[in-house]
Amino acid sequence: MDDVTKDARTSFEDALGRLAYKLLQVTYENMDTNIYFKITDGKRFWTLHKEAFKDALQKFDIKVEANSSSSADVESRRADAIAKKNIIAEAVKVGAMTAEQAKDAYIDILKTFEGVDINKLTAPSMLLPQMPTS
Asked: How far is CA 64 from CA 8, 9, 23, 40, 59, in A?
């Protein structure tokens, strides 16, 4: 990458970081109360306290970096998928996840790849990790 492109990218990243701080600050200054999110069961709520925005301004360094996403390239997506698959298999092995939950999680992983049609999978049971036998 040439110096001009590098400088432009760095300036853009810095501007996005400053914008993120400004969004947090403006949100904090204009909030009258906490924000409440209704959980899908309809009975409980998740609360985002106003002070969390103020704390974020003081406690966190916001840095924007181009191409820093783990999904930036095929190799990174593949590595993430393998890691998720291994975690799911281990969760099933120790009983922290059911086989049906694992199947759903594997399908979610497959949906992140381009060109994969979940409906065309001929043997979805092949997605399931081997359950331990007692």
From this structure: 13, 10, 14, 32, 16
CA dist 118 and 115 (Å) reads 10
Q: Which two tokens stand for residue 131?
A: 């359950």
In angstroms, rounded to a whole number, what is the distance separating the alpha carbons of residues 94 and 132? Answer: 9
Q: For a pLDDT cut of 90, what percent of the chain falls above it? A: 19
Distance CA 64, CA 40 (A): 32
d(CA 30, CA 17): 20
Domain ranges in the chain are 3-59, 74-127
Task: Work out the angle between the directed axes of helices 74-93 and 99-111 (0-180°, nearest 10).
Answer: 180
Task: Give 7 or 128, the one with higher predicted confidence.
Answer: 7
Cα(104)–Cα(111) distance, integer angstroms: 11
Give me the amino acid identity at 25.
Answer: Q
73-126 residue pLDDT tens: 667 777 888 888 899 989 989 999 988 888 888 888 887 777 777 777 645 555
CB 37 within 8 A of CB 46: yes
**pTM for this one?**
0.45
Q: Which distant-in-sequence residues (6+ apart) come within 8 Å of 19 by Cβ?
A: none
